[in-house]
Design goal:
Layout lengths: L29 E6 L3 H5 L1 H12 L4 E6 L4 H8 L4 E7 L2 E7 L2 E6 L4 H8 L6 E4 L19 H8 L7 H15 L4 E5 L6 H16 L2 H7 E2 L3 E4 L7 H11 L7 E3 L4 E5 L15 E3 L3 H24 L5 H4 L5 H13 L11 H12 L8 H5 L2 H18 L5 H13 L17 H9 L5 H9 L7 H4 L2 H26 L1
Parallel strand pairs: 1-2, 1-6, 2-5, 3-10, 6-7, 7-8, 11-12
Antiparallel strand pairs: 3-4, 9-11
Bound molecules: D-mannonic acid.
């Protein structure tokens, strides 16, 4: 049999020089455990970590742990934990192999080993990209949803299956091992993510008797992460193979832009992420809010409107007549007055840059990918903007149009009648409420506003808001998104 045609250590010497890792794979010891081996993590944090180790050294290799998915861990195992990132510019692309992963594991396969890692003195930072739903929080209140799975993780000896359960088991073991302080850093698109993870862990730590130790030994740096990284497609794989001359089954493609703002609070030390371009700060929250409401809020807006109008990708949706104008009004009239941007940043200019990034034709970001998990994403992306504007006495009609589009989307059909997928942890509840309500715009609005983990009481009880939603849902249902936007332009 031929020597493997896969990317692995034996293949490195034959790779084009510009594509080789900046750190010698396997030389750095592990210092970080990362939960969630997403495409985003591989194209964002792992790249920063590789660049920082290349600039400043240190034993900060990453052990990447997948809470569930098998495919990417299997691919990495077959490739000595190597994979490539292809940067997709509007007029060209380039590929580099990343050597920052010390190991990759699946939680279900070896939970005890993952808990032992969290209790190891060598590990001083745990980072997470487990998506909004991985935290099992009630998005409206920020409190943990103590379902049977999480309860069993906390109250029995069975191997942990949930992310919060794993963290608590790991912290219990770390305290027993006296392994020193540790930072847990959420890198998910959640509002004040450090604060939120702290609240979750504090709550569960109190229930397990380690609250005092957690207070003294664990920090929760907040962070804003940013890079548009669509799901890998066959075209990503073939671009990587073309650049490397070997196959890479864990390849990812990403836009050229990337940014990372990190709260500098690492009691066990940290690597020189700043030397890789990350910004270390006392307070990342103004950045988080700007990014969540503007980038992610507009992403979701384009996703729901675009998917209903029958467009496959975000870039394609931005070519719908009237859509970019509607997004500019959303940014200028609703989002901008809802927040104070970081010093020196102008929200409208930031929004323009975001629209330009979304329009990158080399990025195949599916509208339905951004549209998934809407019940978990809408609160911080769109509803908080609406809440703030309603408290200021304004009616943010561009933001409410996004909610109306989501209300149409979750009914399962695009404007031309084709099915759109409802991929959401609340799918069953949403379908149940819709089935029990009259199939009219006001019936649908009424039914969905009753989802109390999505809509805060102040929104659900807002009669003027309800009236606008019914009007907008009626227009989209009757005329379709394309005509609604073209009419408004
Ligand atoms: C997107 C984000 O899929 C989504 O919900 O809005 O993943 C977005 O691409 C990133 O947050 C960009 O930094």
């Amino acid at each position: 049999m031929a020597v493997s045609d896969l990317l692995n250590r034996a293949a490195l010497d034959a790779l084009p020089a510009a594509t080789r890792p900046l750190v010698e794979p396997g030389t750095a010891q592990a210092g970080i455990v990362h939960l969630g081996v997403s495409a985003f993590f591989r194209a964002h944090q792992a790249v920063y970590t590789e660049d920082a180790m290349a600039a400043g050294g240190g034993d900060w290799g990453i052990v990447a742990v997948a809470p569930r998915s098998r495919a990417v861990v299997d691919a990495l195992a077959a490739q000595d934990n190597l994979y490539s990132v292809t940067t997709l510019g509007p007029s060209g692309h380039s590929t580099r192999v990343i050597g920052a992963l010390a190991d990759a594991r699946r939680l279900p396969q070896d939970p005890a080993a993952v808990v032992a890692l969290l209790a190891s003195p060598a590990i001083r930072i745990v980072t997470l990209t487990v998506t909004e739903k991985g935290y099992r929080l009630d998005p409206a209140t920020g409190r943990p949803l103590l379902d049977d799975e999480l309860r069993a993780d906390l109250e029995t000896d069975r191997p942990p299956r949930t992310v919060p359960g794993l963290l608590i088991r790991g912290l219990l073991a770390r305290r027993r091992a006296d392994a020193g302080p540790i930072a847990l850093m959420s890198c998910d698109n959640l509002p004040a993510n450090g604060h939120l993870l702290r609240g979750l862990v504090d709550h569960l730590a109190a229930a397990t008797g380690i609250a005092d130790w957690v207070r003294a030994s664990v920090t929760f740096p907040g962070t804003m992460v940013d890079r548009i990284v669509p799901a890998t497609t066959p075209s990503t794989l073939s671009l990587a193979e073309g650049a490397l001359g070997v196959r890479d089954l864990a390849a990812v493609g990403a836009e050229p832009y990337y940014a990372w703002i990190i709260e500098d609070d690492f009691p066990g030390g940290r690597l020189a992420w700043d030397r890789a371009g990350a910004v270390l700060t006392d307070d990342p929250r103004p950045w988080e809010r700007l990014k969540l409401r503007t980038l992610n809020g507009v992403h979701s807006a384009v996703a729901y409107l675009g998917a209903l109008a029958g467009t496959e990708t975000i870039a394609e949706a931005l070519r719908l007549p009237g859509l970019p104008e509607a997004m500019r009004r959303l940014i200028a009239e609703d989002i901008t007055p809802s927040l104070t941007p970081p010093p020196g940043v102008n929200t409208i200019a930031y929004g323009e840059e975001v629209l330009e990034r979304f329009a990158n034709p080399a990025i195949d970001y599916r509208t339905v990918q951004v549209a998934m998990d809407g019940s978990q994403k809408l609160p911080q992306r769109v509803l908080h903007t609406i809440l703030d504007r309603r408290s200021a006495g304004a009616m943010p009609v561009h933001a409410t149009l996004v909610v109306a589009a989501w209300m149409r989307f979750v009914q399962g059909a695009a404007d031309d009648g084709r099915a759109v997928p409802l991929d959401d942890p609340l799918a069953e509840r949403i379908r149940g409420r819709l089935a029990a309500a009259p199939a009219t715009p006001s019936g649908v609005v009424e039914a969905l506003l009753g989802l109390d983990t999505v809509f805060a009481p102040a929104l659900a009880a807002d009669a003027a808001l309800r009236g606008v939603l019914v009007e907008q849902l009626t227009a989209i249902t009757k005329h379709g998104v394309a005509a609604t936007l073209a009419g408004a332009a």
